[in-house]
């Protein structure tokens, strides 16, 4: 399930670590609306991207003139996606809107989008949020790779295989995965937990079992997905509001 969340800010100046702020807001909103604890396994099954219209960046803050941001939230599991939709809908009907911390974010609108009608064994994708590939086996602590690094494919393949195993998919569905068209991915540096790290953004081609590709579409691909990385659309996809 994919949801578009329209958020209002109480001020036009926003933190540079806006992805982490949105991730914390989602968790806090869930805990405010639901009686059960935040499910730690959810970190594997959802992702999001953030759109900042007409934003300008400085060394310290982001200026968002309209004080509005748009979050595209994607969850693989349909039951959990519906649970989040209901939770967000409840926020819209509260007498006092849920606002969190000094940034004063509160929800103003929720839209639900249909899944694409077809995902085949070869899909061309466009990343909506940067792709993080964390290498924890380099011998010198973790580092993040971009598509231009020599071991980018091998490390990303290991991460995707782990995603498939966590999703409970059979090994034949997992090991068929491949990535092509790396020349469509550009290197960039993003801020995460106070550090500038390498990431990739652009287009590429994924091949493999339909079950795994559907999972990646819903849950995101790569590292740190639940903090706003690795969400992609199908190239030329037309999401329809339902």
Which sequence of SSEs, written as H and E, runs from N to C? EEHEEEEHEEEEHHEEEHE
Strand content: 25-35%
* Spatial shape: globular
Major sheet description: 5 strands, antiparallel
Determine the mean pLDDT: 86
Distance between the termini: 11 Å
Could you walk me through the main structural features you see in this protein, from its secondary elements to its overall organization?
The chain is α+β, with helices and mostly antiparallel strands and 242 residues long. The chain has helices at 18-33, 78-92, 152-166, 171-174, 210-219, and strands at 2-8, 13-15, 46-51, 56-57, 61-63, 68-75, 106-113, 122-127, 133-135, 143-145, 178-180, 185-192, 195-207, 232-234. The strands form four sheets. Strands 8, 11, 12, 13 and 14 form a five-stranded antiparallel beta sheet that branches. It has a four-stranded antiparallel beta sheet with strand order 3-6-1-7. A three-stranded antiparallel beta sheet has the order 2-5-4, with no helix packed on it.
Question: What's the topology here?
Answer:
Elements lengths: L1 E7 L4 E3 L2 H16 L12 E6 L4 E2 L3 E3 L4 E8 L2 H15 L13 E8 L8 E6 L5 E3 L7 E3 L6 H15 L4 H4 L3 E3 L4 E8 L2 E13 L2 H10 L12 E3 L8
